[in-house]
Design brief:
The complex is a heterodimer of chains A (about 100) and B (about 250).
Chain A lengths: L11 E7 L7 E7 L3 H12 L7 E6 L11 H5 L23
Antiparallel strand pairs in A: 1-2, 1-3
Chain B lengths: L5 H22 L8 H29 L5 H6 L10 H4 L5 H22 L5 H29 L3 H14 L14 H5 L10 H14 L21 H16 L6
Classes of the chains: A alpha+beta (about 100), B mainly alpha (about 250).
């Protein structure tokens, strides 16, 4: 009997799908795959097999630097009590309807 | 019902039964594939193949004009009435056998659909054009796997080479043009499959080379499926596939 590899898991890739021309690529989820082409195929099968996308991106999860839950306070809280950072004090001219 | 065309009905069974039997075989992986992503991919391929079979067998029932629809053809024929190539009915084997078979049959399938998309039968041409896109993806998926298995670890290389050696003698039948289709080929309705072999071989050799795998030299080629002479494996596959439809004939949900 060959000894099963202890490396049970392939690298993780983040998948981004574009629904239609001009729309942004949005994060859809992640897949395991050995390499980029393999990741693209797995992404197609898992996230685009029902015609949900016209374009796919895959990115190694390890290449993404993300904020952590601990960052929530220092990163995002201060915005809440600084209303002057929002543009709602500007008067909107009459006649402008589309916003 | 139109005028019965038994020759075209038989030719369509050869096309449709390949996809139905290989599709059902592939569905055996559902819940058993090595990783979740591959489980979804194989189930997806199986569904595509059964969908192709559905369209082709529906057309076969129409041109046969004997009152049988695609369900009657799929679930109420016995093994000797099936016309699939033997390659499609062999047991699913290990992952390497499944992938190599998908690659070998997929490459053939793409060339066959390409030729049939120019059929003078507009229904068949339409089915082929739709199926061609699916089969192009199948062969890409399987081909990439063949390269990774063949050029992977010692064990994956050994298993992939074993799969090529075991399946190769069943590839010749794909390109044996049945004599009873001569008129259909002359009328441009079906394609002469013997013409597809050089291009199939070129594509297969290209992938096997990248995978560091070797095609066996001048192997004896098995045959019989196109005339209804099958291996013992088809009967068991059909027993499982047909049991519900036969236990509850006419059931709908």
């Amino acid at each position: 009997m060959p000894t099963p590899s202890t490396e049970s898991s392939w690298p993780l890739w983040e998948v981004f799908t574009q629904e239609k021309d001009g729309a942004p690529h949005e994060h859809a989820g992640s897949v395991h795959a050995t390499d980029a082409e393999h990741a693209l195929q797995n992404a197609r099968d898992v996230y685009a097999r029902r015609g949900e996308a016209i374009s796919l991106w895959v990115v190694p999860s390890a290449a993404i630097t993300a904020s952590t839950p601990e960052d929530m306070g220092p990163f995002f809280d201060p915005a809440n009590d600084k209303p002057y950072r929002h543009p709602q004090f500007y008067k909107v001219p009459k006649g402008v309807k589309v916003f | 019902m139109g005028t019965p065309n038994p020759a075209l009905a038989t030719a369509l069974l050869r096309i449709g039964d390949d996809r139905l039997v290989l599709g059902h075989r592939t569905s055996e992986w559902c819940g058993h594939a090595p990783i979740l992503e591959e489980d979804i991919a194989l189930a997806n391929v199986a569904l595509d193949l059964i969908g192709q079979a559905n369209m082709v067998l529906q057309h076969a029932g129409t041109v046969e004009a004997a009152g049988r629809d695609q369900d009657a053809l799929a679930f109420f024929r016995d093994a000797f009435a099936f016309r699939n190539a033997l390659l499609c009915e062999l047991p699913k084997g290990d992952f390497a056998v499944t992938i190599v078979r998908h690659f070998l049959h997929g490459a053939y399938s793409v060339l066959q659909w390409e030729a049939l998309s120019r059929s003078t039968d507009p229904t068949l041409a339409g089915i082929a054009a739709k199926a061609l896109k699916e089969s192009r993806y199948h062969v890409r998926h399987a081909g990439e796997w063949v390269i990774r298995l063949g050029d992977g670890t010692d064990e994956s290389h050994r298993r992939a080479q074993d799969a090529v050696d075991a399946l190769w003698p069943y590839t010749g039948e794909l390109f044996m043009q049945p004599a009873d289709e001569a008129t259909l080929v002359a009328d441009g309705v079906t394609a002469d499959v013997s013409h597809l072999e050089p291009e199939w071989r070129r594509q297969v050799d290209g992938v096997l080379q990248r995978a560091t795998l070797n095609a066996p030299v001048a192997a004896w080629m098995q045959r019989g499926g196109r005339d209804g002479k099958h291996t013992e494996h088809l009967g068991r596959l059909l027993a499982e596939m047909q049991v519900v439809a036969r236990a509850h004939p006419g059931a709908a949900w």
